[in-house]
Specification:
It contains no helices and 11 strands. With 115 residues, the chain is mostly beta strands. The strands form 2 sheets. Strands 2, 4, 5, 6, 9, 10 and 11 form a 7-stranded mixed beta sheet that branches.
């Protein structure tokens, strides 16, 4: 059974930091490209960061220089380290795995940036 379980979300003040984790199971994690998406209320879901099976990374312009995506294939986990958080980063963050074999998305974790 495929599972993607996000954790690490919460309430943080502007300028603060959070690290999201996504634990994967039920598929060969190392062969999948991994992504973090986010969806704010009333807005479409957008990709904010990605890391390929080979380690290449992608960042949306809105998070470049503030967010870092990483993966630990030994732990079947992908991380999103978020620094200098802004109120506009408030959203549900979803972990996604994609490869030719299929695509999977987790249930999401809420991140709220507010003073």
């Amino acid at each position: 059974q495929v599972r993607l379980v996000e954790s690490g979300g919460g309430l943080v003040h502007p300028g603060g930091s959070l690290r999201l984790s996504c634990a994967a199971s039920g598929f060969t994690f190392s062969r999948y490209n991994m992504n973090w998406y986010r969806q704010a209320p009333g807005k479409e879901r957008k990709r904010v960061a990605g890391i390929s099976s080979g380690g290449s990374t992608y960042y949306a312009d809105s998070v470049k220089g503030r967010f870092t995506i990483s993966r630990d294939n030994a732990k079947n986990t992908v991380y999103l380290t978020m620094n200098s958080l802004k109120p506009e980063d408030t959203a549900v963050y979803f972990c996604n795995a994609i490869a030719a074999m299929g695509t999977y998305t987790g249930q999401g974790t809420q991140v709220t940036v507010s003073s």
